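Regression test case RT-17, inverse folding.

Input:
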């Protein structure tokens, strides 16, 4: 397995962006330089959990989130050098079992019957050898229609508040795409459905 855990560049970037948004508590639009950083990290095989761990450490030390990923680039390089020089796997990577989270949500009485059935069906496909990235994609496509209206409304309102400042700065298509992605990510986070890939 590669150091990036066989993540595609898209999944790698999505994962890092989601963590950066979680830590910063706001919607994030990456600059060209930030995208270049993530592409470089992916190409070099810097593990996403290592970058996530470094993000959290930088935020904890500063007590505020830096406005740009470029501010953590040096810390990522130092962490990566430590790994290359023989450090064990980062804490964020150890013990992660997304399938266990999916099984818990599928069996939870608080989960809607439709969502529980969908997750159970996807898990059955996983057990039969389906690609985890494909199952993540299919959950993303359907989750909005499977959650209760109150959960969806809360996710949409939270995302809309965070994106309000971007309404005049992004073209409508990009804003709509960002909103859709952010709502799905927020729903997955609130329900405890981590990505099977990454």
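Golden output:
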């Amino acid at each position: 397995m590669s150091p990036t855990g066989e993540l595609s560049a898209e999944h790698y970037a999505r994962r890092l962006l989601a963590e950066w948004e979680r830590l910063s508590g706001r919607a994030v639009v990456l600059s060209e330089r930030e995208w270049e950083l993530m592409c470089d990290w992916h190409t070099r095989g810097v593990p996403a959990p290592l970058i996530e761990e470094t993000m959290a450490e930088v935020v904890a030390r500063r007590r505020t989130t830096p406005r740009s990923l470029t501010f953590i680039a040096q810390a990522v390089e130092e962490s990566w050098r430590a790994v290359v020089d023989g450090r064990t796997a980062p804490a964020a990577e150890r013990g992660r079992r997304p399938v266990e989270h999916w099984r818990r949500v599928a069996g939870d009485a608080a989960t809607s019957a439709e969502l529980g059935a969908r997750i159970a069906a996807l898990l059955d496909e996983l057990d039969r050898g389906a690609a985890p990235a494909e199952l993540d994609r299919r959950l993303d496509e359907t989750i909005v229609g499977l959650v209760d209206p109150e959960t969806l409304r809360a996710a949409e309102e939270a995302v809309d508040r965070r994106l309000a400042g971007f309404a005049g700065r992004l073209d409508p298509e990009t804003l709509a795409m960002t909103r859709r992605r952010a709502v799905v990510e927020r729903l997955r986070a609130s329900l405890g459905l981590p990505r099977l890939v990454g």
